[in-house]
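Sharing a chain and its predicted structure for anyone who wants a worked example. Both blocks are below, sequence first, tokens second.
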Amino acid sequence: MNQLLPLVARARVTLRDPQRLIPAVAAHLVDHGAQIAEAPGGATVVAFEFCRGILQAGHDTLFLQAEAPDTAFLHEIKTELAEHVEEFARLPAGAIAWEGDASSFDAPPNFRLMTVADVGDVTPHMRRIRLKGQALTRFASLRNLHCKLLIPPAGRMPEWPSLDRHGRFVWPDGPGRPVIRKYTIRAADPDAGWLDIDFVLHADAGPGSAWAARARPGDIVGLVGPGGRSIMPAARYLLAGDETALPAIARLLETLPAQSQGLALIEVAGPAEEQAIANRTGIVIRWLYRGQAPAGTTTLLQDAVAALPVPGDSDGLFAWVSCEFRAFKAVRAQLRKHWGFPKEAHLVTAYWRRGWTEDGAERLDALAGTVAAIARRIAPD
């Protein structure tokens, strides 16, 4: 990505010591998948797969430049740069204003309305909903497995997000405001204009599960994305998770290179919850049954990982695991402490936490992010 991308936006912000801020922002964005390089004139380049940002310090001014091939990517890199500069510089949200390309949109460029095209049950507790829409090419990439659904309230006229003068999302606050939930993109066909999302159906349904239970063809839902981290290229894989991770694991098994080897551990209630997966790889699928025990109450998944032989050589092996919070902590500790896996060789995440509602889990994530930000600010140099 050495050439200037076709869309460019620029911003500047007055700071007391802009040069000191740049390394901290750049290092943090590495965790978001960025690659860092130095450009002529002392500028720092923050490059993602399809877009990049440039940070350069003046005497008392930080100059920002965002470059991307389309408006959606331009919006994403502008947001990444602005939010993190504002966080590390302790500026109020919205302090950075952009000029240049794509500065006058009313609606977020990565937001679209989707129509329910089909609803069907894959297993007794897994429902697949096909959504029809336009401009879905990016949703077919394995680099970003997730999206956010904006679920309108039942029985009310929906209100959708817009952009403010700084190019930031403005979420509606009226009675028709949607509820936001993150889901895995199970499959996508951009040419045909559809994508599939699988929903776990359960008695104590949150907004997402409740919407899936009542969804009918013709219903409208908002879509933002794609996003989220994914797997890294490898010769061998360990894939593991419960029902919430099953859509992602199934998609990986159906799209990874045929020569891929490894093991997939999938926890479900029982044989009725097994899914037919068009596994095109050499990765072996092992189903784990917890029986009548409620999801998130057993150690089945973490025990299965712990029972595996410790790899003698982790080179060429990547572990992708998503599950309930307690299992997540146990598996992550197993991979890091007992297997000695480096950070870049695994991605272990908690998709949910037993005893927490979806809203409670999101508040917990938000609180954790706030605490981490405060810790970075007060930590000694």
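Comments welcome. The first strand starts at residue 7 and ends at 14.
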